[in-house]
Amino acid sequence: MIIQPDKIRSIATSWYKDILSSSVYGIPQFPRNVRFRKVKSNETQENFFKINTETDKLINGSKEKKGYGYTVELAQRNDRRIGPQKFPEKIYFETLDDYLKFFRKEAQYAEFIEITQRLKRELPHLLPWVESNPMKVIDNLGKWDDIIKVCYFFLENPMPNIFIREIPLDISTKFIEENKVIIKYLLDILIEDYVNKDETDFNKHFNLKNNEPLIRLKILDPKIAHEFFSGVDDLSIPQSQFNQLNLPCKRAFILENKTNYTNIFNFLTLPSLEGSIAIFGKGFGVGLLKDATWLSNKQIIYWGDIDPHGLQILSQIRGYFPQTQSCMMDLNTFTDFSSLSVMGACTDVTEIEHLTPDEHELFDYLNSMEECNRLEQEKIPHEYALKMIYEIVNI
């Protein structure tokens, strides 16, 4: 019937973003009117007491009674039966102070203005962003001293090439990591010409060193282990350093790595082989190997599960290294140990580019099976695996 203080609060709350935005370059415009439904003449007789009660409540919450907040202007109407009666005609916030006190936003607004003025002096290129995103400024109150420190660092070092926690600033070592969203908005503006726009990863986007994935490597030739790694034959190497290796080996085995790491035993029990290394793959993560160009002239032997996904991974590796051979990933092996097969996932993929005709036929066969279409590599007896490894090495 009569608009009440809670409704006024709800309506006026929606103004806050616009008020902040207009404060970036000037002073917000006041007074501001509250739009509301006015009482119609035919409602007065039927709701006389309710109208009076609600009008009193409206006045008691207004600037007239509290000294701040909304102002109510009343208009008087005369009715032949009930006589003169006053109704709200206009409701408005007269000044910015009235508005801020009503919402208890005085301190928050003052801090916003302080930040805005500082950015205007020190980083004026950010003002259009602040005008469009004032609530993001509000959401990060208490952090702006450190945010601005970060901005200055990147302005002076737009291509730092260090780890994020190496940035030499008097801030928490985790501050940038915990505030990547707001920092990215700002740096994309301040150092636009230096960012890698196609990279979504924060570190790559801003030319920071990344926490690289590790590639596990087993040296099967003791001579190579002693000459290059002081006899250590089981290593985990960051991807970029792995790509720079140039080991004098003739071949590299790649074994699939399942999530539960059961295949690690196959990896660890590979026999010593002259001129050979083994790489513990990561399923479809074998893409980590694609830039290791030193493998291009090696014999590559891939041993994974005999299932649709294992054959897709084989195709993926062969796309990087066309000379890749498969080991124990054929129909004979699957048939010989079919009693050990389990249910595996099928795939919607029907054409795989880098499989041989026999491998593709096996893929189609496995992908069409309703059950027991997966032979996990760890199910293959060790003696049989050694026999097949020695055979492919001596081809």
From TrEMBL:
InterPro entries: DUF3322, JetD_C
All copies of domain Wadjet protein JetD C-terminal, residue ranges: 208-386
DUF3322 domain location: 10-188
Protein name: Wadjet protein JetD C-terminal domain-containing protein
